[in-house]
Give the backbone structure.
Amino acid sequence: MTEVFAVLVLLLLLNIVVGLARVLRGPSAADRMLASEMFSTSAVAILLLLAFILDSPPLLDVALVLALLAALAVVTFVGRAWSDLQSRQSESARGMESRESD
Amino acid sequence: MGWLVLVFDGLLAAALIWLAWQATHTPGLFRSVISFIIFGLLMALAWVRLDAPDIALAEAAIGAGATGALLLSALGRLVATHEEGAPWQERRDLYFWIPAGGALLGLLTLAAWMLPSPGLGEQVQDALPESGVQNPVTAVLLNFRALDTLLEIGVLLLAAIAIWSLGRMPLPSAPAVRSPALPALGRLLFPMFVLVSAYLLWRGSHAPGGAFPAGAVMGAGGILTILAGAQPWLTGSVHGPWRMLLSLGFAAMLALALGVMALGQPFFAYPPGLAGLIVLALELAAGLSIAMSLVALYLAGQPPDHWEGEARGE
């Protein structure tokens, strides 16, 4: 069973590495934030599997903290960063339109 | 099994280096911040692989959680600037940074090579029964090297004072969409933050945990309630005592260290038999201070003395 878990851990890490392409390409801030949330979930799963493979209960606590704090980043993003980023983007888009019409 | 571990470590190391590069060299601050948050996440996994669950816990709580919220909020407040052009994009800069980075790496390798080989681990294990706790990391942090922890908490306090002295807290920009989900989430999750924080503090005496992760989780909970629209009642004559929590950890540790000196003992030498109780009390004080400091840092300025709709207390 440990072997299966080890392969799963590797697959989950591969998942993160492949997902980094979404951080690189975007295109929008929300895509990048969602990719980061997906990595948090994968990291929690990796830690839970590692806790069983290595028989190390403290890793369960690390997973617990990660799972709890993943919510904070996304709430900050929605509450603080996203609205401002969006209005800035729409402003710059409007600025471009007005320049084109001149 | 062996090759699996090798591939895992290789992938993790490659992703970490790539994310570090992205965080410093990518055009666009948002991408840098996201790369930094993911870097913290993978760094926690790296600490797990290095068999250091204590540091993994701290990294998960501070690196991936609280720092991410701080950076994202700061980004939201930044005035739109020219985001193009990372600072070191010019090729000639690389002629400086590659040799400089190489030299630093070489020196660090040399320093790591020259470390005395079994280290202090055995001495800590030998003295562990006298420390009052079973977790060697907590024993070092709050007993054997309590002076370092005192200074670290002092740095946090100084940072909070410096940020508050910069000016008034900027009024939070309202979210674009007023959603009832945010206050509901805050109400639902905050008790969980308190519970996990208390659990980590309690765990600290016999397993990875302790004041730093517990304080960071509690501070993150406070940041969540502020994001959900709560008012940070830290100043003013009505809510004044809350502000005192900022200095509680520093004051308690210093008072204890000086108190045992007055009894004729060396600085920070706990009376035998009471060490366990003292460590627990100091952890509680330090944890509360760390949590409050994180919230104070997040406010980016001194909160007002009076909030709207609040009776003016004299």
